[in-house]
RNA sequence: GGAGAGAUGGCUGAGCUGGUCUAAGGCGCACGAUUGGAAAUCGUGUGUGGGCUAAUACCCCACCGAGGGUUCGAAUCCCUCUCUCUCCGCCA
């Protein structure tokens, strides 16, 4: 959510940001409502001041035995007027809130202008895609023939876009989760969090998933709970409606969670394999930062996510997203893309963003350094560290052998109980 | 799921027979005085949002879990909801 004061004082700046976003939203209505609201508020507050003043005198008048019927009649009229005005103001508030919640964040000045992913800028490429002396297979074929991924059974027990992992596959998934968490907590100073996988509506609104993107989420039918699409939601909302001590910043959390996404609107895309699932595992990195530090924090956080890919020996590249391709709440985003032989291209495996005060304003997360200071909004950041299912896919494809067996990356061997390869299929 | 109790400022805790509550007292915290320095003591201050502003100055408005209602006037009375605690039942 943007600051209404910012929109009021520099409407052109906001309008320009919306153009950069390729958004057709219009802020004129919002500005008109804001003006109207302040006019009514000014009048109503004057009446309330009078009401308070008269109320203060009533006990004395009564004590003196004065007749108060005339005053009460007059005050009744004022009271009714105030109620009307309050109703009007709260209606305008509601309307403004609705509008404000649909305005995306302002892109940072370092974000390149552009309409879609073709305008994203490659920052660096790490590791080189392997040259295969044989025809590499896709992970869904490898996984099925090795008996470690079972899409048909998942379809039976749940539906499309679910996977059953078995044997070494299930263990690999678990090994990667533990490896990610251990690496982040040990090397990068994150506090591990294990959050609820369902959250309430306020939390989903706080981080920007609601109200605009309700169709992307799974909602629990009999409660107003939502299955989390990412651990970003519960973890960022841990500090909702709090004023943090500035000395504690930055606060860094990493959290494993299952993630649930309806994938509305992506029918027919990535239908095979682990790439696009209704449920997947992810380790998420979340930071709460001082405003002046947040872009340094973004670089650090991105480096933390890159680190696990480097340790796994997976080739990847870092993309700076352009203004038209960024997520709704983000001011600046780097995507990490891992090399996926079956796709013959790089595929997103992590998205690292600085939201500046956009989420903090929605979720009301502030900090101050001392009693004298005025509380100000923190900056929030998060990034996948990284998506687990896609990591499994990348490992299967990049570490496959001609006979269909899979080498286990060195760093994962301890997590696999010493297993160095997933042996080829027996059948 | 059943029965009961409760939710007040950073914490504790009064108020809850509606009107100096414009929220007492205590603790904590900040600043100052005192001191060689500290403790103790004394003094002053101590939240959030909004309006007005050059202003994080003054002034005004709102906020006693959330949302409604009654009233000239609500922390206080009424209704709904949420959460917490105690007991019972069920349960991994």
Care to describe what's here?
The strands form five sheets. An eight-stranded mixed sheet has the order 1-10-11-12-15-9-8-4. Strands 7-13-14 form a three-stranded mixed sheet. Strands 2-3 form a two-stranded antiparallel sheet. It is 39% helix and 20% strand. Helix 5 (139-145) crosses helix 12. The chain is elongated and about 100 Å long. The model has no long low-confidence stretch (mean pLDDT 93). It has 427 residues and is an alpha+beta fold. The protein binds one RNA strand of 92 nucleotides through helix 3 and helix 4.
> Spans of 5+ residues with little confidence (pLDDT < 50)?
none
Write down the overall geometry. elongated
What structural class is derived from the secondary structure elements? alpha+beta
What composes the largest sheet?
Answer: 8 strands, mixed
Note the gap between the termini.
56 Å
| Number of strand segments | 17
Secondary-structure element string: HHHHEHEHEHEEHEHEEEHEEEHEEEHEE
Q: What percent of residues adopt helix (DSSP H or I)?
A: 25-40%
* Fraction in beta strands: 15-25%
Query: In DSSP terms, counting alpha (H) and pi (I) runs of 4 or more, how many helices?
Result: 12
**Please, what is the average pLDDT?**
93
Strand order of the biggest β-sheet: 1-10-11-12-15-9-8-4
Described by its quaternary structure, the protein is single chain
Radius of gyration: 27 Å
Features:
427 residues; alpha+beta; eight-stranded mixed β-sheet; three-stranded mixed β-sheet; 39% helix; RNA-binding
Write the layout of secondary structure elements.
Layout: H1 4-9, H2 11-20, H3 28-63, H4 69-101, E1 121-126, H5 139-145, E2 149-150, H6 151-157, E3 164-165, H7 168-187, E4 191-193, E5 198-200, H8 201-206, E6 225-227, H9 232-237, E7 242-245, E8 251-260, E9 279-289, H10 294-312, E10 316-320, E11 332-340, E12 345-354, H11 358-363, E13 365-368, E14 376-377, E15 379-387, H12 388-398, E16 406-407, E17 421-422
Parallel strand pairs: 4-8, 7-13
Antiparallel strand pairs: 1-10, 2-3, 5-6, 8-9, 9-15, 10-11, 11-12, 12-15, 13-14, 16-17
Helix pairs in contact: 3-4, 5-12, 7-12
This protein binds one RNA strand of 92 nucleotides through residues 38, 41-42, 44-46, 48-49, 51-52, 54-56, 58-60, 62, 68, 71-76, 78-79, 243, 366, 370-375.
């Amino acid at each position: 959510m943007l600051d209404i004061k910012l929109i009021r004082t520099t409407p052109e700046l906001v309008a320009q940001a919306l153009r950069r976003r390729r958004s057709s939203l219009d802020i004129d209505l919002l500005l008109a409502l804001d003006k109207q609201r302040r006019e009514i508020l000014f009048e109503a507050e004057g009446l309330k001041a009078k009401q308070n003043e008269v109320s203060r005198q009533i006990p004395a008048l009564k004590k003196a035995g004065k007749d108060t019927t005339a005053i009460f009649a007059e005050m009744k009229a004022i009271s009714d007027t105030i109620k009307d005005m309050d109703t009007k103001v709260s209606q305008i508030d509601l309307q403004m809130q609705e509008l404000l919640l649909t305005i995306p964040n302002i892109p940072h000045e370092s974000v390149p202008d552009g309409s879609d992913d073709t305008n994203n800028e490659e920052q660096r490429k790490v590791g080189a895609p392997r040259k295969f002396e044989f025809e590499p297979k896709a992970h869904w074929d490898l996984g099925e023939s090795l008996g470690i991924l079972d899409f048909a059974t998942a379809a039976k027990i749940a539906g499309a876009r679910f996977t059953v992992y078995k044997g070494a596959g299930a263990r690999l998934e678990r090994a990667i989760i533990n490896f990610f968490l251990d690496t982040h907590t040990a090397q990068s100073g994150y506090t591990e969090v294990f959050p609820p996988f369902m959250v309430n509506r306020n939390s989903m609104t706080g981080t920007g998933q609601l109200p605009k993107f309700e169709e992307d989420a799974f909602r629990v039918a009999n409660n107003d709970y939502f299955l989390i699409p990412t651990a970003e939601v519960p973890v960022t909302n841990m500090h909702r409606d709090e004023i943090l001590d500035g000395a504690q910043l930055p606060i860094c959390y990493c959290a494993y969670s299952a993630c649930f996404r309806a994938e509305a609107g992506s029918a027919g895309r990535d239908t095979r394999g682990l790439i696009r699932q209704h449920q997947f595992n992810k380790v998420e990195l979340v930071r709460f930062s001082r405003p002046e530090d947040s872009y340094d924090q973004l670089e650090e956080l991105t480096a933390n996510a890159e680190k696990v890919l480097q340790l796994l020996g997976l080739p990847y590249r870092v993309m700076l997203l352009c203004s038209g391709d960024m997520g709704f709440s983000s001011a600046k985003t780097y995507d990490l893309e891992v090399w996926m032989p079956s796709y013959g291209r790089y595929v997103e495996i992590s998205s690292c963003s600085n939201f500046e005060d956009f989420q903090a304003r929605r979720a009301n997360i502030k900090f101050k350094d001392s009693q004298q200071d005025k509380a100000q909004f923190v900056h929030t950041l998060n990034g996948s560290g990284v998506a687990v299912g896609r990591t499994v896919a990348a490992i299967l494809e990049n570490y496959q052998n001609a006979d269909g067996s899979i080498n286990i990356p060195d760093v994962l061997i301890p997590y696999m109980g010493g297993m160095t390869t997933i042996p080829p299929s027996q059948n």
